[in-house]
Specification:
Layout: E1 18-20, E2 24-25, H1 28-38, H2 43-46, H3 48-52, H4 63-76, E3 84-89, E4 93-94, E5 104-116, E6 123-134, E7 139-150
Antiparallel strand pairs: 1-5, 2-5, 3-7, 4-7, 5-6, 6-7
Pfam families: MaoC_dehydratas (PF01575)
Organism: Halococcus thailandensis JCM 13552
Protein name: MaoC domain-containing protein dehydratase
Length: about 150
């Protein structure tokens, strides 16, 4: 799948169209910054010794952190730059596998649905399916994201 770095308006998107993000290696700093920003200092995520004896054998990212990284990778595709009015939520989000420090993740995005809205004449609803995987192909997040994309003027 080709990378895309140009903004896309509602009219530019077609159901079935796909986009691939760049890769990103998750770091110790990411873990610390996420905990600082959210206030979530759960030891499973922040205490090396504690987590080594836990169910994963090492620290893992908070589930919301995996989601936040995925939204950042969507922004890096460039298609939402100055064309997204709002993020409206998700119908579902599954986290089948934990993200660990040192993993490189990337995302595949597919336009699953789009529709005009009677309540708006300046934007339309676009639902984007996302699959976030690590460098070994292990799925870390699956879900959909709902956006309002601007119409062309």
């Amino acid at each position: 799948m080709p990378y895309s770095y140009e903004p896309h308006y509602f009219e530019d998107l077609d159901v079935g169209q796909t986009f691939e993000s760049a890769g990103r290696t998750v770091t110790e700093t990411d873990f610390a910054l996420h905990s600082m920003f959210t206030g979530d200092w759960t030891e499973l995520h922040t205490n090396k010794e504690y987590s080594e004896d836990g169910p994963f054998g090492e620290r893992i990212a908070q589930g919301p952190m995996t989601f936040i990284l995925s939204t950042g990778l969507f922004q890096r595709t460039g298609i939402v730059e100055r064309t997204v009015v709002a993020f409206l939520g998700m119908n579902y989000m599954d986290l089948p596998s934990a993200v660990r420090i040192g993993e490189t993740i990337s995302c595949e995005f597919e336009v699953a649905e789009k529709r005009d809205l009677e309540s708006r004449d300046d934007a339309g609803l676009v639902v984007v399916d996302v699959v976030t995987s690590n460098h070994e192909g292990e799925v870390k997040l699956e879900g959909d994201m709902k956006f309002l994309f601007k119409n062309r003027e």
